[in-house]
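[scheduler] slot 2 assigned
[scheduler] job type: sequence-to-structure, two independent chains
[scheduler] chain ordering preserved from manifest
[runner] begin chain α
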Amino acid sequence: MRAGLMVALLVLGTQPALRGQTTQPIRVQRQKPCMGTTLRLVAYGQPEQAVVEAMDQAFARAEALNRILSDYQADSELMRLCARSGLGEAVPVSRELYTVLTAAQRMSIATDGAFDVTVGPLTRELRLARKSFRLPDAETLANGREVVGYRKMELVEGSKVRLQARGMRLDLGGIAKGYTADQVLAVLKTAGFSQALVALGGDLVAGDAPPGKPAWDVDLIDLPGDKGAHRRIPLVNQAVSTSGDLEQFLEINGVRYGHILDPRTGLGTTDRAAATALATNGMDADSLTKACCLLPEAQALKVVAAYGAQARLVRPDGNAARPARIVTSPGFPALGSPGN
């Protein structure tokens, strides 16, 4: 679940070395479709062919994770787990899936269920609504909510998962891309190319700074209430994620339903909230943005602080003269403008 490409790459570093020169790291950039969006990689190193081979390994890692975590692929490990819901058994799962579900449960507890990956049945109905331009009826929503609830997902020692209610369906769209970006960066670092940047949809994870620069310069897309040019932040060994309903939404009878699903209603958010989260890893940043869009302002900032992260929240005021109110946590970096 994503509002399109919410983060733009702005790589300002040493120019690529000329052919035949090997004293300076070479800048390599590649991209491929992944997880319904685009996976973009930038890395510095040499020789160039070694960087390209590491990127091939990184792309392969991302595809392998998609086969584990996707709720679009009927034969993914995630969907095979869901097919065994309600049978009373604790199902062994891969280390990757168990790691993501553990992080999801932690976020669910921290947000009192505002973030909840068990919303899959409701997500499916929302996807159908986008195609038919018709909201699910009250009975359909009620039936979906019957099997939703993070407490119905039990994590068992030994990397096992028990889905207690029959018909449960998990949706990792609010956390899987951040985790995948983390893993892709890890592949590049292991190969010896730590000066790297990974962008997957609205999730961006940075490694060491590029040659001759203190940090990667990253442009954030304008959010409601922003004025002027895009805002820029420096990023080194951190992750940033942005979510909102700027691009993916459904409008019916004058009401705009965002792509971030509210487990309490079974429908997309309607207040046009948006958030940017800055964290030590992509998985936390990814899930924090969803939590920030769903929680009241004070509670959102409390959760962000508990994760040792920073956030920038946009809360529309409904006032033509002041369409949005922007609140940042104390440590969120000052936003510069391109050219500064």
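[runner] end chain α
[runner] begin chain β
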Amino acid sequence: MTGKSIHPSKPIGRLSTGVAIVASLLLAVCAAPLMAHMPRAQKHERRHEIDHLEDVWRDALIKGDTTAMGSLLADDYMAITPTGTLQTKDETLANLRSGRLRIASIELTDRKVRFYGATALVTSKADVKATNADGDISGSFRYTRVYVQDAAGVWKIVSWEANRIVAPGEHR
């Protein structure tokens, strides 16, 4: 060896590294909006998947199908019921299994599905005919459900919140 050492910290080395970093950042920032706009067919397919899962959810609730419901809910699922109660996945499945809630029908309308990367946000109106241990709980509700797509491409429900629609002058 000649005793010379390489100094990557010399100004020219730092300038080249800095330019490379800035160029990489600019490329990432400029490419992000382009990647966000997926082809129409892919958007339609994703929307169809979520619509199907919403139907599976409704059917599982009406039939008391804990297996189907369990496959839809993420392990860290959290719900906020129309009464303001928090429910985990285990609590939701236990309530469904108990049969205390009897749902005769759920009509879903005014559904909107929006995508944010691997997250789908669903808002909808549900007209429900149901009873529980306290009596008739039928009514119209607005809800928000959040789906997240895992690494394997499987959509799971991570959150749900529902609120009763109250007519002007009506009490909850």
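[runner] end chain β
[qc] chain β: The helical segments are 11-36, 40-63, 66-72, 89-98.
[scheduler] slot 2 released
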